[in-house]
Design a protein that fits this description.
Elements: H1 2-6, H2 8-15, H3 37-43, E1 47-52, H4 54-71, E2 75-79, H5 80-83, E3 94-100, H6 106-117, E4 123-127, H7 133-137, E5 140-143, H8 156-175, H9 181-202, H10 205-215, E6 220-225, H11 230-244, E7 247-252, E8 269-274, H12 280-292, E9 296-302, E10 313-318, H13 326-345
Parallel strand pairs: 1-2, 1-3, 3-4, 4-5, 6-7, 6-8, 8-9, 9-10
């Protein structure tokens, strides 16, 4: 798992290799000989439906924020195992996006087939395996180049999914006339810089290891985020519970006072994803609520967010503020926190109990 965490700068560079500009043809996939297939399909959609499970579901949740704020396209994200068994309203003009590391995830494949049975034929998969069932069964595909991922807890597959989903966001924004040439250039420059920015996050490992020592005796943890970083809090909690076996939950920080605040004591570490974005002042207020109840905060803060370390407030400063792409950076710090906590607790990091890498059965 540690090897795969540190492979993420290269995996992102490989996933973005050959992307010279934003064009629908990026999503034609390896099996589609029609160079205009994606362009035709994208021009006729009016919303997006994302189907996925587990970590891939959380990447879809981040993409919802991107697709609605950058591309201006209504987006729904469904847990595949739920979508396949419920009565839903067919949306023939929706782009159905499946996300899967292996491309063989049973629930996601079944959800895709259910959508197709409802007449939803505009399908795209984001997948790490070019020869998988998901790529064969979807009309379009974007194959990430994360390389083989062995660790059960997904790391590099997740960040490359996010990169692909942001490319999809920019492509749909361009198709809908919501992306200027200057914006396209700026976003592409930010994406090309991601591998360098990730190296700077990985350099925080010694500080994160010190945090991990404090988590070793704990049995519960709370993760908080707002906006597009709420799904990153969800992913951070999932990583911690998967490999360290510490019970962890994530909430939108604004939900604290609607129930979860009752859990907060000095025995419950509270991890907070705190980029310097439009919600930072609201998040600071939520953090004060935690401190007022004796909670101990562990804050991943941007350097200019004016959050200071103090008693009960532990701060690691992220190397730079990265705007809409900052979820890709913050999640890597949370991966390292889970990894080092698990190592210190002596659990099997690469093969956690009761779990399989590819969930190919229902």
């Amino acid at each position: 798992m540690q090897k795969e965490i540190f492979e993420q700068p290269r995996a992102l560079a490989d996933t973005l290799q050959g992307v010279q500009g934003i064009d629908a043809s990026l999503f034609n996939g390896p099996l589609n000989g029609d160079s205009d297939a994606a362009a035709r399909m994208f021009s006729g959609i009016d919303r997006v439906l994302i189907l996925a499970c587990g970590t891939s579901y959380y990447s879809g949740c981040v993409a919802k924020y991107w697709l609605e704020s950058v591309a201006g396209i209504p987006t729904d994200v469904e847990i595949a195992s739920e979508y396949r068994y419920r009565t839903s309203v067919p949306q023939p003009n929706a782009l159905v996006v499946t996300i899967s590391q292996s491309g063989e995830t049973a629930d996601t494949l079944s959800a895709l087939r259910h959508a197709q049975s409802l007449g939803m034929q505009k399908t795209l998969t984001i997948c790490n395996v070019a020869t998988s069932a998901m790529v064969r069964e979807c009309a379009l595909a974007y194959v990430t180049r994360a390389g083989v991922e062995i660790g059960v807890a997904s790391t590099k597959a997740f960040t490359t999914q996010l990169a692909a989903l942001f490319l999809l966001t920019l492509t749909l924004a361009k198709v809908k006339g919501n992306l200027s040439e200057a914006q396209e250039t700026a976003y592409l420059e930010e994406m090309r810089h991601l591998p360098v920015a990730l190296q700077s996050v990985l350099a925080l490992e010694p500080q994160i290891m010190a945090w991990a020592d404090a988590f070793v005796p704990k049995e519960n943890a709370l993760f908080l985020g707002r906006g597009r970083h709420y799904p990153i809090a969800l992913e951070g909690a999932l990583k911690l519970k998967e490999i360290s076996y510490i019970h962890a939950e994530a909430y939108p920080a604004g939900e604290l006072k609607h129930g979860p605040l009752a859990l907060v004591t000095d025995a419950m570490p509270v991890v907070t994803v705190a980029p310097n974005d439009e919600l930072i002042e609201k998040l600071k207020s939520n953090m004060q609520e935690v401190r007022a109840r004796g909670g101990v905060l562990y804050v991943l803060a941007d350097g200019d967010s004016q959050i200071q370390a103090s008693e009960g407030v532990n701060v690691i400063r992220m190397p730079e503020h990265y705007g809409v792409l900052s979820p890709i950076l913050h999640v890597v710090a949370l991966q390292l926190l889970a990894y080092h906590t698990a190592c210190a607790r002596g659990t099997d990091v690469d093969k956690p109990r009761n779990l399989a890498k590819s969930v190919t059965v229902e």
